[in-house]
């Protein structure tokens, strides 16, 4: 499945979440009294714990079959199938630790995650514009876009750009060069042109996350699976709200190591 659908359903929540990105620090989990206890059920292997609510987030650990989990809150993410059906609900079990609800059972209902509980884990600074109004795909005006660090010809929606710029600075610190970008926001007309030249390697015009100004195609090594640059991104981008969607991963339906999306933090 594509995260495009997933993110479309959760975007309203995420937009509220990221209003405080400029302040951006970790907020503790819900009080123990409000947390529900869930029991993990996995079929044979331990259940993977991820840094965010989706299969695009880095694996940060695992929990054994039958383990008892304290579920802090629930949020929407990648749709996953498990012993308890197919659902896009993910359980937050700690700071930067999430498991798919399709693998957990609980007698109590855990509360939905608040903005503070799912916000980005790093500060990303102030955006160049406060215009986060929704626009049709490929019809975002210049005033609602911000340029990217070291790539002045490329742009994204304000919060996505601010997060990207912070990510690029962190990437440069670790790798000695900023993130290299081949594609970012794409107008509708540009999407039509890209589809004509790239065929299946491009989304149907009007459907691309690029048309929302929330996706980038990267170069400089990130565009190849197995490189140190790609690994660095897998491990670090989620802290900035950037994910490599499941469909674009090596095992996904359309492997695109270069394609990354802003999840809203
Ligand atoms: Zn792309």
Automatic annotation (TrEMBL):
It comes from Pedococcus bigeumensis. It comes from the Bacteria. This is Peptidase M15. GO terms for biological process: proteolysis. Keywords: Signal. GO terms for molecular function: peptidase activity. Residues 1-35 form the signal peptide. Residues 154-264 form the D-alanyl-D-alanine carboxypeptidase-like core domain.
């Amino acid at each position: 499945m594509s995260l495009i659908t997933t993110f479309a359903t959760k975007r309203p929540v995420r937009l509220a979440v990221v209003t405080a990105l400029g302040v951006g620090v970790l907020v503790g989990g819900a009080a123990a009294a409000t947390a529900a206890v869930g029991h993990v059920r996995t079929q044979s292997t331990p259940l993977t714990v991820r840094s965010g609510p989706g299969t695009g987030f880095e694996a940060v650990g695992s929990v054994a079959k039958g383990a008892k989990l304290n579920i802090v809150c629930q949020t929407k993410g990648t749709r996953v199938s498990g012993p308890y059906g197919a659902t896009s609900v993910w359980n937050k079990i700690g700071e930067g630790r999430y498991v798919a609800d399709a693998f957990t059972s609980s007698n109590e209902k855990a509360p939905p995650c608040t903005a503070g509980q799912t916000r980005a884990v790093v500060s990303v600074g102030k955006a160049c514009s406060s215009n986060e109004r929704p626009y049709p795909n490929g019809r975002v005006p210049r005033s609602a876009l911000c340029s990217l660090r070291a790539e002045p010809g490329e742009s994204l929606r304000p919060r996505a750009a601010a997060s990207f710029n912070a990510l690029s600075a962190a990437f440069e610190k670790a790798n000695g060069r900023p993130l290299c970008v081949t594609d970012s926001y794409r107008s509708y007309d540009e999407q039509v042109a890209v589809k004509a030249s790239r065929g299946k390697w491009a989304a149907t015009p009007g459907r691309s996350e690029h048309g929302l100004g929330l996706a980038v195609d990267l170069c400089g090594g990130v565009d190849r699976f197995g490189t140190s640059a790609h690994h660095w991104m897998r491990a670090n981008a989620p802290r900035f709200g950037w994910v490599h969607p499941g469909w674009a991963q090596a095992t996904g339906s359309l492997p695109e190591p270069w394609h990354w999306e802003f999840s809203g933090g």
